[in-house]
């Protein structure tokens, strides 16, 4: 076939028009002598152009023709152009599957399996497949026969003769027939073993559910009993040898390839358990040891090979256990763990290409359906199906899921399964990744009937269906709960109250009756408010269920909605601001403190919808707001009421940011650095309390003295306050210092300073809805016996003459916080020589510090407290770390400027940098200090009151664990980790503080 130079042949143009991407290569193939009789046949070109990949199909035809015997080639070609059923099937397969093209090239006569087109050929079952495999009496013959059957299944699939569910069922039936044939081969090769035992093969997973992929592990469980007259001790090993041989026949790879791996890891004890058990052994395990996921797996159990009576007995015996799983004590935490899809194991570059495990993937649909089956199948036998699509249909018919939702999910699942089938069919490899290369994407799109712009249409359809799955995955659980308490259209099925209560219990709600009342109150009626709530609640309920206390989350949401429901911006905020609703759900269900703060002023919920709302306000910004409000107030009480309201609002901002940063959201992962969370909370609460004290000071002065107090006055932060390490439940440790103004009598100045302190403390502790701020001045000279306020000269005289080493240690964390900052700096100048003594501490002072620490450990630990779990005074806790760091500061602060800080972590980092402590030891101490601080913060967030040890209430303990990043069911791991980390820290303390390492 020749053309003039520079001009394309008419064949080239036709090939291009028919979808060939490499017309030149295709033209050369058509010019081969073997294809001379059909090269110009318009029917053949049209048929090639209708395939998923015309170039691949043509190459497959050429390889098949070349592989045929010479006298058979023309028969193949004549049949190809004259018999439309064969043409569509053979070319369809060759254009979609390179692997089946390879098979035909090795076994060219197998194309004849596609010639017949009888009614019985359209939907074969197990019996038909067994007939096809009946002549295979060795493993390689079975592999060839299996591929021949697979060829016919693929042909029906790509031609549209079967839909995706029918194709999956055929693949499962072929697997059943193959397992039977493999077991027959194994039994024939070991007749003695076969005579000793009755062996049944139970299909699990997709094979058991009648929804197998083209390439998938076939999950099985083996059960055996002795044959008549045989002993169990002989029968079980014999059955084990038969089962292992059967697995090898299917799994081994030879020149004829492999069939598929047989996976028995769903058996009791997994890969660590015996491959074969008796029925009584299976039941003993399931009754005593099995976890919820194992009963979920048994949903799909189906006897497929071996002894049919034994297989039926197995399924009959385990079935009641499956439907009792939802009544198990640990069902709720197990479900919460299973619902939380773990995609961290998927490489980051693959997450967006995963159609099985990725967001909006097949696993989301399958898990949702299976969970609903476990919850409701115990009372409704119509739900007991191993097939995902059949079960979804039954759930819809029973009113357990909405019909529209079920239809959309069915459509999405079918599309995703079709994608999975066609991806695997190409090379017959087990994969769930959408390809990246354009030729592969083009072939995939065309195989699904997308022909105009296959790649763009494929991506659009895939993303659309995945989005439907993501949206409905949670809604599937919760939408029917609203329907159960709402008025439905005539003819619509509803979830019964009992079924709704079962579902809420399964999702972690302890009081389902109260939850249903809240749902009814929130969503009933025809108002716009109720309509928006019905849109929001399905998603919110899922987020509540993902927390440690779903009941509290839903109750809090009802209270906030009752308070703000008539406010136009509230529901609009939750509906339109993507993060606001999830943020609110996380905050309301994580503990008591944040909801209590919010419910005292619900309008603060607006913070959660502002992209910048969770960032802490600077101290300067807050001080300007507070002092301006004090200046506008009519009296001191009104002024401090505003100040405390600001503090409450900012505490809510801080707690919300901490909770959301600890839990993470769908859009923003959890903060990976716990130290950063601790530092943010400490700095924010410290700034907030400093501003609150400044506001109270201005209000107290203004009420009696106007703009100027007769004496200069400063508030010095001590302890955690001075160290910028305050927790939510911390008091504000302070010292008060004053200096009379020029011309003012010292006694008058002292009276004024004392009156202003008393008034500040009174104002900050007035009984109101806002949390009080306790000011603690017990670290002052002479403690509670000493004067509350001293002049700078009085402090100087006391410290020069009477100061003890513990007082110098306490001054390490002194920092001016409010009032006259110049006076505060003068105070710091006064105490620096005390806290950073030149040449460090003498031996007597070091011994005294160690003696005080040891005495505190023995005397101040609460009676009955577990010293390994006490965050403040316990082994490796806050006190251990802080005293070790403070001893370093007093020893070396005079020479190392980095140690002159009030902050524990900064001082520890400086000590490491100055090589005063090995950095590994510094890291150990830092890790323990951060963890103990987070535990204290968690206890306050969860219980609403401070505590120095883990709560004993199981739900509260779980909530602390969730805050710290532990999944439900891992409270024991949390306590073990805490003990391990603090034990290591205590070893460092023993060496660095009590030893001679300083």
How would you describe this structure to a colleague?
With 998 residues, the protein is mainly alpha-helical. Helices cover 60% and strands 5% of the residues. The chain has 44 helices and 10 strands. The strands form 2 sheets. Strands 1, 2, 3, 4 and 5 form a 5-stranded mixed sheet that branches. α35 links the parallel β7 and β8 (775-776). α31 runs parallel beside α33. The longest helix is centred in the C-terminal third of the chain and has 32 residues, at 674-705. The radius of gyration is 38 Å and the shape is elongated. The mean pLDDT is 90.
Shape, per Cα inertia axes: elongated
The count of helical stretches stands at 44
Task: List how many beta strands DSSP finds.
Answer: 10
Structural class: mainly alpha
Task: State the helicity in percent bands.
Answer: 55-70%
Assembly state of the chains shown = single chain
Give the end-to-end Cα distance, rounded to a whole number of Å: 94 Å
| Unreliable runs | none
Proportion of beta-strand residues: 5-15%
Largest sheet: 5 strands, mixed
Please tell me how large the radius of gyration is.
Answer: 38 Å
What's the mean pLDDT score? Answer: 90
Task: Report a brief summary of the structure.
This protein is mainly α and 998 residues long. It has 44 helices and ten strands.
